[in-house]
């Protein structure tokens, strides 16, 4: 009997013999596929570093959250005999991961469920979410990132620092400048900028 296999996001596996029957009895549905986008460069840079620093401005969390998850959590999916058809377990991947997420409004924090952020913190990530800029003004992104870069890349036990930033142009520029100054001091730092906008 014909059937289809469908992969969805978030990942779920569906096998349904009715898909083909529906297709044969209805008009074609135009579909536009777009992509692929991106590369593994940002993740590769962070994985090769002793300290990973992720900086998100607003919707830039859509870039840095999956990177943090990939660094800290490994998903194992397997069939379970329990009532839940799939079980996901997590294991720690690295220790030095820090994330700064700057939001304009408190409601923006709902974009990522709090329990997902707690999972990452439980796996060892340091998370800083300052008060919303709409209420408290802009936080000292420069000072915080500069401190994290210095802590990870300066001194006798200096390691390599990987930084990925995704946010408004001004935030991206501040983080790039912090990293440029650190390079000038001899710190081993790599920076990746994920830019968005019109």
UniProtKB/TrEMBL annotation:
The chain crosses the membrane at residues 52-73. One of its GO terms (cellular component) is plasma membrane. GO terms for biological process: copper ion import; intracellular iron ion homeostasis; iron ion transport. SUPFAM superfamilies: Ferredoxin reductase-like, C-terminal NADP-linked domain (SSF52343). Keywords: Membrane, Transmembrane, Transmembrane helix, Transport. One of its GO terms (molecular function) is ferric-chelate reductase activity. InterPro entries: Ferric/Cupric_Reductase, FNR_nucleotide-bd. PANTHER family: FERRIC REDUCTASE TRANSMEMBRANE COMPONENT 3-RELATED, FERRIC/CUPRIC REDUCTASE TRANSMEMBRANE COMPONENT. This is Ferric reductase NAD binding domain-containing protein. It comes from Coniochaeta hoffmannii.
